[in-house]
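Data card: per-record layout.
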Amino acid sequence: GTVEYQRNIAIAGCSYSQIIQCRSWLPDEIGGIAWFSFDNPGQSPRIPIFAGVSKLPRSFEIGAQHRYRTDSACWYFKRANRLATVRWQSNRKVIEEAVKEFEDKAFLELPDIEKKAKQLYKKDPKKCREYLTTYTTNFARATMNKWWELGDYFWGLYRRGF
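The structure for this 162-residue chain is written out next.
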């Protein structure tokens, strides 16, 4: 009873996390972004999901709580992150560099994405939503592919044991 339990934000048992960004000077479809990550938020990239998207990849709908599923987006991240944690001291840099790669990508691309989205919104809000849906889907798939490759890479490191 001396020390009370405190749950950190970045833990291996986390299913997902998000940071909501609201920018009132932009139309809601563009100004609202959920910076979403699956699994441990300290080991996974944040995917910018615009408020205007009309759908997400089907794999986002598949749960990861009860069993391993290769059709679940969450498992793309969970698999690589768990394997990285086995030898965290030597794998930490690999994960952190990959996360940074996608952070840099988002921050570099978003000004142009938002500019084009605003132009489309003025002409046809539906075209704007389609554009943002395509961007979000492509970004999500790129992160998923990278984390699947990382999972394969970490398995390769352990071919002779952990």
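Known properties of this structure: The longest helix spans residues 88-123. The first strand starts at residue 16 and ends at 22.

See the next section for split statistics.
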